[in-house]
Amino acid sequence: MKSWRNNKLQKKFIIPLSLGLILVATLIATVPAAVNAQTGWNLVWSDEFNGTSLDMSNWVIETGGGGWGNGEREYYTNGQNLVFNGSTMTIQGRKETPPGSSCWYGTCTYSSSRLKTAGKREFKYGRIEARLSIPTGQGLWPAFWTLGANIGSVGWPKSGEIDIMEHINNETQTHGVIHWDNNGHVQFGGVAPNSSVSSFHTYAVEWDSSSIRWYMDSNNFVTANILNNINSTEEFHLPHFILLNLAIGGAWPGDPNTSTVFPANYQIDYVRVYQQGTGPTATPTRTNTPSGPTNTPSGSTNIALNKPVTCSSTENAGTPCSAAVDGSTTTRWSSAHGVDPQWIRVDLGSTQSIGRVLLNWEAAYGKSYQIQTSNDGTNWTNIYSTTTGNGGIDDLTGLSGSGRYVRMNGTVRATPYGYSLWEFEVYPGSGGPTATPTNTAVGPTPTRTNTPSSSTNKALNRPVTCSPNPEYACTNAVDGNTGTRWSSAHQIDPQWIRVDLGSTQSISRVVLRWEAAYGKSYQIQTSNDDVNWTTIYSTTTGDGGVDDITGLSGSGRYVRMNGTVRALTLYGYSLWEFEVY
Questions:
Q1: Which CATH number is correct for 309-428, 1.10.8.60, 3.30.470.30, 2.60.120.260, 3.30.499.10?
Q2: Per annotation, catalytic residue among 62, 122, 129, 166
Q3: Could you tell me whether strands 110-112 and 74-76 are parallel, antiparallel, or unpaired per DSSP bridges?
Q4: Is the N or the C terminus of the chain less surrounded, counting Cβ atoms within 10 Å?
Q5: What is the mean pLDDT of residues 86-102?
Q6: 62 assigned to active site
Q7: Cβ atoms of residues 116 and 68 within 8 Å
Q8: For 365-406, what is each residue's pLDDT tens digit?
Q9: Active site residue 122
C-alpha cells in the first residue's frame, strides 16, 4: 500500500521493474512452505482493540483526500470511520461525502480511515502480525503494511516498505510485497491463495537481519533475502512503523461500481509485535535512537547529573531511577504501570537555586505533573505545573525556586503504562537561559511553554489568507477547532498563512498547533499594511507539536507564519490552529 506509487503488477509473483535488475529475482527467491519459523518470539507490543475508542498512545490518524499517490477516491476522516465493539476495531469504508472534505477530483464520494504508529511504535526486526477479516468488492483495497521511519527525510522508496497483507477487489488471494530503492524503485513478493478472505486469518512477516518471511496463518508463502544488504536492501535494516488502512479506488484495483457493497467493513482483531529476546517488554519503546538534550546551553551545568536519586517505583530492574540522571539518552527510568501518582526525586546535596528543568520523555509520558522543590525531602513546593503535557522534550525555563531536592511528581499518565524518562536534568537559576536556546529569537527572547496565558486569542475566526493552492482551507487554522486544519501545497518553499486582526494590536504570544507536516524553519512576522513585514520570532530548529511562543514584542494589524523550510520534504506546512495573543 503506497502513498507515492501508482504501479502494482498483478502477477503471481511480483518481480523487479527494471530488466537491468533481473538479478534480484535470482537472489531474492521464494522458499518452500516447510521452512520453519523462528522460535523464541516474545511479545513486545500489541493493540488488542478491546476498548471503545482508538488508543492514541499507539496510533496517529491520517486524514485527507489527495489521492495518496495512487488516484484513490476515499477521504480519510479523523476517526469517524472507526467502529469499536469491545473486542475488534473496524475500519468502515462508506459511500458518502464527509462534512468539510475536499478530494483531488472534486466532491468526495467515499470515506474511510488510515492509521499509523509513526513516532509512537517503531520496530527493527521481529514478527509483526494481525488477525484480520477483509472486505471484498470492486475497488476495495485493504492493507496492513510498514514504512521506514526515516521516510520524512529520505522519501519513498528509499525508506523501504513491507506490505504484510494487501487485497484488492474480489481476488481469492492476498499479496505480500517489499518495495525499495536500487537506482530506482524495485519490488518483490508473492501471493497466498485465499478463498475465504472475509473470514479471520492471521497475516504476518518474520523479519530479521537475513530475510523477510511472509505468512498467512501457518503458511510461509514467500521469502525475501536481505542478508548483508544484498541488492541495496539496507532499507530493511532500519526501524519501520505500522499502517492499517482501507483504500477505495485507485490505479491498482480500479474504482468501485454498482456491485460494490457499502459500508465495507475491514475488521482488525489485534496487531502484535514479537521480537527475539529473554522476555516481554511491557512498555513499548521508540526503537529509533532518542535525541539528546540538544538545548543544553554552554554556560550552564546539569546539577542533577549522577546525583543520588529515588523514585516511587520501577517497571523492572532494567529501568532504575538512576538511569534518568546518568547522562545517557539510551537508558531510562520507567515507573510501575497503571498507577498514579508516581514520582522521581534527585538529591542535589545542598540547597540550590533552580532556574530550569529538562524532562526528556520516553513514549510513556506525563499528561499532568508538577516540578517541586524541598529542603527536607518531606515538605514540597510547586515551581511548575501542567495538565497538558505532550511528551517529547519538556524544556521548562524561567523557573524560580530553591531546594536540596527536586522532584517530578506525575499525577496523570498520558498512556496506559507508567512514566518513563530518558533524562531528568536540573539547572541552576543563575546563568541559565530564559528561552529555548536552539531557537533564534528576534527581539526579546521567546519561551516555548506548556502553560498558556489567560488572554484572548485575537486570531479566532478573523479573516485569513495563505499562499496559493492550499490542500486544505486557510480558515481551518483560525476556527478554534483542532479537528480541522490548514495545509499548504506540497513540496514548495516558502509557504505562509496570514491573519488580519482588524486593527493594529500588540503581539506578545503566538501558538502554532502543527499537524504532522510542520515547519523546520519559519518566522513569525507582523505588518501594518500587509506589504512590509517585521520578523518578531525566527527558528531553524522547529520540531512540530505545539509551538507556544511567548515573550514576543511587536505590533501590527497582520500576523504571518512564514515557512521557509519544511520538515517533511514530501509534504507542505499544516496547522490545526494558528493563535495570536
A1: 2.60.120.260
A2: 166
A3: parallel
A4: C
A5: 94
A6: no
A7: no
A8: 898 999 999 999 989 999 999 998 888 888 898 899 999 999
A9: no
